[in-house]
Every structure is written in structure tokens, then in C-alpha cells.
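[Q] Does anyone have a clean C-alpha cell version of this?
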Amino acid sequence: MTPPEEAVLVRMFIGETDRHRGHPLYRAIVEAARSAGLAGATVLHGPVGYGQTGHIHSELDVDAPGNLPMVVEIIDSEERVQAFLPRLDGLIGSGLVTIEKVRAFHCGRRAAEQPSL
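[A] Here you go.
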């Protein structure tokens, strides 16, 4: 285990049908984060949720086409995340983004090989 470090977690709440230049927005965000050299990104697929409109989107609703929730999380140092935010703003047409300070550490057998955040 490496010692915990200060980091920033960016969490984006978008829909699975959201697009950027014809491609899934969640994929475009992950690719942009990778090309920016950020430490890591993960996409989580939500089975049910609602947002600003109040309409509940659910994978269980077979009668209505859905726009299931997607959550994209990115973690890195505060400086690197701040530098990435303008690029993120250019990708997301509409969505909620949260930013929070976290303490992160690498654990497991390969922890010693991981670069710091």
C-alpha cells in the first residue's frame, strides 16, 4: 500500500444517449481524460435514475425507450483536474459535474509500481 495522497474526484452525470461528434459522450470523456494523461477514469451504468426533467429512466421500462444514467468518474491531482475542466466543459452539452477532494492510495501487489497522483 502506498501512503494516501490528496486527490480530486470529478463525477459527471450524463445520459447513455448523449453524444459528442456522433460518438457516445461517456467514451469521448474517457478518451479525452486518457489523452490528457489523467490518472484514471471509470464509467458506471445506472439501471434507473432521473435528472432535471424529473422523468424516471429505467432499464425495466420496456414500453418506453430510455436514456439510462451514466456516471463518469475521473481522479487525479487538483492541478491536473483543474487543467482538464475547460476540455470537459467543451465535451458536455448538458450535465451535472461534481468535484470533491479525496484521499487516494494504491493498494495490492502492484501498488509500488504505480505513479503518484
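[Q] Thanks! Anything notable?
[A] Residues 78-91 form the longest helix (14 residues).
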